[in-house]
Amino acid sequence: MSKKRIALLSFAAFSTLMISASFLEPAAAKMKGENTVMVGGAAMYPSKNIVENAVNSKDHTTLVAAVKAAGLVDTLASPGPFTVFAPTNAAFGKLPKGTVNTLVQPENKMTLTKILTYHVVPGRLSAADLTDGKKLTTVEGEQLTVKRSGGKVMIVDAKGGASTVTIPNVNQSNGVIHVVNTVLMPG
């Protein structure tokens, strides 16, 4: 058998394996008795912690990189529980050009940490707990305000900016994630 044919067969076998895995992964989760939610093309497993799930979401690569740069991986992998309002890559993309690159620089770690911990609330709050007008004290120390309108849940930051929850109740072993479409900014 030629090397070219072996390479082609290897590629075909690998491709089949990857396609099978992408279809079987959600089924495997159901078989384990876990109700998963798809976020960024990946199943979010309630038995995994916030960090273990977030690293698999293609919509949260900027958030994961920022969490690593801020040194918050161990915190978000701890028992918690935490409620995390997780901005997507598109949410970070709404910030002025160059902001994310500046924030992840070592000299800006304190500012980055302040912004990221402003997206985290102690405890496990489901979407049903996010009632209109509710004040949420973040790990950073400042408050967020919940606004409900037309069946949508919005989180209003200290500067009056609003972020809409696009995927609620993504349960984790150490809390819950609510995917949001805008980065929240502390005062």
Automatic annotation (TrEMBL):
Superkingdom in the source lineage: Bacteria
Which residue ranges traverse the bilayer?
none
**Which named protein is this?**
Beta-Ig-H3/fasciclin
SUPFAM superfamilies hit by this protein: FAS1 domain (SSF82153)
Question: Would you indicate the residue range of the signal peptide?
Answer: 1-21
Q: Pfam families recorded for this chain?
A: Fasciclin
Q: Which GO terms describe its cellular component?
A: extracellular space
